[in-house]
C-alpha cells in the first residue's frame, strides 16, 4: 500500500478552484520533489495534506496508509506521522521553544498510546538533534521562532522533523532563505532522516537543493495539476529551460 | 442579576442598610462619627452610575440596583464550608488570615505561624480600642469615590498589618475572603503599613463557599509603603458566578521604594477592581499589572489611577483580558503626572483577547501630563486568537483546545511574568490554568 495517495484532488479557496484534479502517489522510502512556478498550488497541496482550515475539498481523496486523511484533525494527522515543514513558519511569542517541542512531542505520543518522554530523555534527544543541526541551546529558550532569522526558522522546522520522526515529511521551500552552509547542514539533517520506512516530498524552486537531497521522482506542477513526472534529470531540464513548455500543456 | 431589580431609590435602600447595621459595627471613640460622615459622603451620590466618568462602563446603579443587607455573623455550619474553600486557594508557604462574611476568624487562620517581623491585628480590635488621635481616621480614610466611603461606613472587619522599619517578612501573608451567604453584603477593610526599608508580600484571595450566591462583597485596602520599602501585592478574585465584588486599593508609595501589584479577576457576575496608586517619593518604581478572565455574561472592570506627584519615578502597567461568550471586560487606566513630576517614565498597555464574536472589551487609557520632560505612553489593542498560530500548533500534534490554551496562557503570561516572586507567579499561573480548564 502506498504511504500517500492523492487522487484527483480538487480544492477551492474562497470560491476559487486552486487544485484542479491533482494526483500523486508516494511510497515508503521514496523522495519526491515538486517543482513549479509561483502560484501553481504547491503550498496549497501541502496545507491540505496537513489539514489547514479554509480549504474546501470539492472532489478527490487523500489516503495515508489507506486511511482517509481528510477525515482527520490536523493533530491526528501529525500523530499518524504527517509532518509539514512550513514555507513560512510562524512566530509564537510567549511559548518557549523547549516547552513547545515537549508539549507537541508528548501530545503525539499520547495520541499513539505511547508513554510520554521523561524530562531527561527528552532533553537528551533535543540536545543531540539540535547539535547535529548546529542550533544553539539558547535559541531553544526563546519563544517559538521569535526573533529567529529566516534561516533559523527553517532549521527549527528541520529540528522538529528530526524530533517527531514522522513517516511523511513535506518540506515546503526549505531552501528559501538559507545560506549555502545552512542549506548543507539542513539538507544533511534531512538526509539523515531518509529511511526505507519514511518518505519525503520536497517542494523547491531550485535544482541546487536536489543536489543535496537527491529525489527518486520529480513532479512538475502547473496551474493546480501535476503536468509531468520523471527522474531527477527532470529537475536539470527545468533549470535549463524553465516552465514555459509545461504551462502550455496545463 | 442584570435587569429586573426594583429601580426604587438606591440611596434610601442603602440608608436602611446603614441604619440597620449600625448597632453591629465595631468602633469606639470617634469611629461612629467617622462612619456617619463617610456614609454622608456616600449618600450624596449613592451607588455610582454611568453619568460619572469613572463609572461609565460599570453602572452599578443599573447593574446591582441596591445594597443588600449586611451579612450575619457566620455560624458554625458556615465556618465549616468556609474552611473548605479557604484551603483550596492556599498560596504556597503563605501565612493565611481568613475573613468569613466580613469577619476575621482566628480559628481558620495561621496566627501561630506569623513571623516576628510584623504585627497583625483585626480591624475590629483596632476600631474597638480606638482613642481620639490614633489610627482610626487613617484606617477608615476615604476618597471622593462613593463606594469607598460606603466601605468606610460599613466595614465590619479586616486586617491591620504593620511591618516596622527595616523588617523583611519572608513568607507571603495571604488574606482570604470567603463568602458563605446568599443575597447579603459584606464590607471589609484592611490597612497595611510598611516602614522604611521594610519588605512584605501580601496575597488577597476572594472565594465563595458552597451554596454562597448573589452576595455583594465590598473590600478596601489602604497601604502605605515607606521609603526604600518594597511591597508585592497580589489579588485574585474568584467570586461566585452570580456575585458582586467591588475592591478598592489606595496605595501611597514613598521614595526609592518598590510596589509590585497584580490583580486577577476570574469570576463573579460583576466585578470592579479600582486602584489608586500615588507615587509620593522620588526614585520609586511601580509595576501594576493584571488580568481579567471572563466567560458567560460576566462583567469585570479594572480601573487604575497612577498618580506621579514627584520627579524621577517609573510606573509600568500591563493589563490583559481574555473574554469568551458574552463577557465584558473594562479597563480604564489613568496616568497623572503632576507639574513637579519631571523625568517621569510611565507606560500602560492593555490588550484584550476576544474568544467569541459577542465578547466585548472596553479600554480607556488616559494620560494627564502636567509636567515637562517626561516619557509616557500607552497602547491598547484587542483581537481574536491568530488562526495561523493555532494551526501551526495543531499541525505539530496539539489538539485544538490545547493549542488555544497554550496561546491564551502565553498571552496572559505577558502580564503574569511581571510578578517578581517566582512562587507567587506560579500561584497566579495555576489559578489562570484552573480557569482555562474550567471552560473546557
Ligand atoms: N487563502 C487564500 N485566499 C485566496 N487565494 C489563495 C489563498 N491561498 C492561496 N491562494 C492562491 O492560490 C494560488 C496557489 O497558491 P500557493 O501558495 O499554493 O502557490 P505556490 O505554488 O506555493 O507558490 P510559491 O511558489 O510562490 O510558494 C495562488 O494564486 C494564491 O494566490
Ligand atoms: Mg508556496
From TrEMBL, chain A:
Xref: CDD domains: ABC_FeS_Assembly
One Pfam family recorded for the sequence: ABC_tran
Example GO molecular function: ATP hydrolysis activity
Ranges for domain ABC transporter: 4-248
Keyword line: ATP-binding, Nucleotide-binding
Nucleotide-binding is among the record's keywords: yes
Family the entry assigns: Belongs to the ABC transporter superfamily. Ycf16 family.
Record's function text: Involved in beta-(1-->2)glucan export. Transmembrane domains (TMD) form a pore in the inner membrane and the ATP-binding domain (NBD) is responsible for energy generation.
Listed name of the protein: Fe-S cluster assembly ATPase SufC
Organism (species): Bradyrhizobium frederickii
TrEMBL record, chain B:
Domain SUF system FeS cluster assembly SufBD core: 179-411
Residues covered by the SUF system FeS cluster assembly SufBD N-terminal domain: 31-175
InterPro entries to which the protein is assigned, alphabetical: Fe-S_cluster_assembly_SufBD (IPR055346), SUF_FeS_clus_asmbl_SufBD_core (IPR000825), SUF_FeS_clus_asmbl_SufBD_sf (IPR037284), SUF_FeS_clus_asmbl_SufD (IPR011542), SufBD_N (IPR045595)
Domain of life: Bacteria
GO biological process entries: iron-sulfur cluster assembly
Family: Belongs to the iron-sulfur cluster assembly SufBD family.
PANTHER family in the record: PROTEIN ABCI7, CHLOROPLASTIC
Classification via NCBIfam families: sufD
Protein name: Fe-S cluster assembly protein SufD
Amino acid at each position: 500500500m502506498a504511504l500517500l495517495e492523492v487522487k484527483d484532488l480538487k480544492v477551492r479557496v474562497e470560491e476559487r478552484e486552486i487544485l484542479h484534479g491533482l494526483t500523486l502517489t508516494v511510497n515508503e522510502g521514496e523522495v519526491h520533489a515538486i517543482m513549479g512556478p509561483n502560484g501553481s498550488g504547491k503550498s496549497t497541496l501541502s496545507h491540505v495534506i496537513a489539514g489547514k482550515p479554509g480549504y474546501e475539498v470539492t472532489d478527490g481523496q487523500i489516503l495515508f496508509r489507506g486511511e482517509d486523511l481528510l477525515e482527520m484533525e490536523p493533530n491526528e494527522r501529525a500523530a499518524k506521522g504527517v509532518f509539514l515543514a512550513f514555507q513560512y513558519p510562524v512566530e509564537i511569542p510567549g511559548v518557549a521553544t523547549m516547552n513547545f517541542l515537549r508539549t507537541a512531542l508528548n501530545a503525539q505520543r499520547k495520541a499513539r498510546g505511547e508513554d510520554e518522554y521523561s524530562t531527561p530523555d527528552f532533553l537528551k534527544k533535543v540536545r543531540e538533534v539540535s547539535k547535529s543541526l548546529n542550533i544553539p541551546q539558547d535559541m531553544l529558550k526563546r519563544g517559538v521562532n521569535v526573533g529567529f532569522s529566516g534561516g533559523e526558522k527553517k532549521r527549527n522546522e528541520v529540528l522538529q522533523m528530526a524530533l517527531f520522526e514522522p513517516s511523511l515529511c513535506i518540506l515546503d521551500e526549505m531552501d528559501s532563505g538559507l545560506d549555502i552552509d545552512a542549506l548543507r547542514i539542513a539538507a544533511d539533517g534531512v538526509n539523515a532522516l531518509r529511511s526505507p520506512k519514511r518518505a519525503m516530498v520536497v517542494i523547491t524552486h531550485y535544482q541546487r537543493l536536489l543536489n543535496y537531497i537527491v529525489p527518486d521522482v520529480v513532479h512538475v506542477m502547473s496551474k493546480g495539476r501535476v503536468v509531468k513526472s520523471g527522474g531527477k534529470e527532470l529537475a536539470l531540464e527545468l533549470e535549463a529551460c524553465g516552465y514555459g513548455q509545461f504551462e502550455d500543456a496545463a | 442579576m442584570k435587569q429586573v431589580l426594583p429601580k426604587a431609590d438606591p440611596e434610601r435602600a442603602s440608608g436602611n442598610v446603614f441604619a440597620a447595621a449600625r448597632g453591629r459595627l465595631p468602633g469606639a471613640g470617634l469611629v461612629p462619627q467617622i462612619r456617619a460622615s463617610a456614609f454622608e459622603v456616600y449618600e450624596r451620590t449613592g451607588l455610582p452610575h454611568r453619568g460619572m466618568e469613572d463609572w461609565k462602563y460599570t453602572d452599578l446603579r443599573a447593574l446591582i440596583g441596591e445594597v443588600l443587607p449586611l451579612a450575619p455573623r457566620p455560624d458554625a455550619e458556615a465556618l465549616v464550608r468556609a474552611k473548605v474553600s479557604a484551603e483550596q486557594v492556599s498560596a504556597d508557604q503563605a501565612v493565611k488570615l481568613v475573613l468569613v462574611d466580613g469577619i476575621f476568624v482566628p480559628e481558620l487562620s495561621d496566627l501561630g505561624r506569623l513571623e516576628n517581623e510584623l504585627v497583625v491585628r483585626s480591624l475590629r480590635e483596632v476600631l474597638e480600642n480606638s482613642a481620639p488621635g490614633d489610627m482610626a481616621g487613617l484606617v477608615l480614610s476615604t476618597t471622593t469615590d462613593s463606594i469607598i466611603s460606603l466601605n468606610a461606613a460599613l466595614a465590619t472587619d479586616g486586617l491591620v498589618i504593620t511591618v516596622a522599619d527595616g523588617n523583611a517578612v519572608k513568607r507571603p501573608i495571604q488574606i482570604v475572603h470567603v463568602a458563605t451567604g446568599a443575597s447579603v453584603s459584606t464590607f471589609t477593610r484592611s490597612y497595611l503599613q510598611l516602614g522604611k526599608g521594610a519588605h512584605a508580600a501580601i496575597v488577597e484571595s476572594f472565594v465563595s463557599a458552597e451554596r454562597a450566591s448573589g452576595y455583594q462583597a465590598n473590600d478596601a485596602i489602604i497601604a502605605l509603603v515607606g521609603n526604600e520599602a518594597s511591597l508585592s501585592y497580589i489579588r485574585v478574585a474568584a467570586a461566585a458566578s452570580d456575585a458582586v465584588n467591588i475592591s478598592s486599593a489606595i496605595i501611597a508609595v514613598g521614595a526609592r521604594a518598590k510596589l509590585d501589584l497584580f490583580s486577577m479577576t476570574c469570576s463573579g457576575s460583576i466585578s470592579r477592581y479600582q486602584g489608586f496608586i500615588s507615587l509620593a517619593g522620588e526614585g520609586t518604581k511601580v509595576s501594576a499589572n493584571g488580568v481579567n478572565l471572563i466567560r458567560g455574561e460576566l462583567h469585570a472592570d479594572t480601573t487604575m489611577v497612577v498618580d506621579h506627584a514627584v520627579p524621577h519615578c517609573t510606573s509600568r502597567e500591563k493589563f490583559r483580558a481574555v473574554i469568551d461568550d458574552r463577557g465584558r471586560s473594562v479597563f480604564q487606566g489613568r496616568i497623572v503626572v503632576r507639574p513637579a513630576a519631571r523625568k517621569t517614565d510611565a507606560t500602560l498597555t492593555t490588550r484584550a483577547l476576544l474568544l467569541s464574536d459577542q465578547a466585548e472589551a472596553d479600554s480607556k487609557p488616559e494620560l494627564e501630563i502636567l509636567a515637562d520632560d517626561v516619557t509616557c505612553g500607552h497602547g491598547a489593542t484587542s483581537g481574536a486568537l491568530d488562526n495561523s498560530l493555532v494551526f501551526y500548533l495543531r499541525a505539530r500534534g496539539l489538539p485544538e483546545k490545547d493549542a488555544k490554551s497554550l496561546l491564551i496562557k502565553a498571552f496572559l503570561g505577558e502580564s503574569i511574568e511581571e510578578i517578581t516572586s517566582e512562587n507567587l507567579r506560579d500561584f497566579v499561573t495555576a489559578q489562570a490554568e484552573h480557569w482555562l480548564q474550567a471552560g473546557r
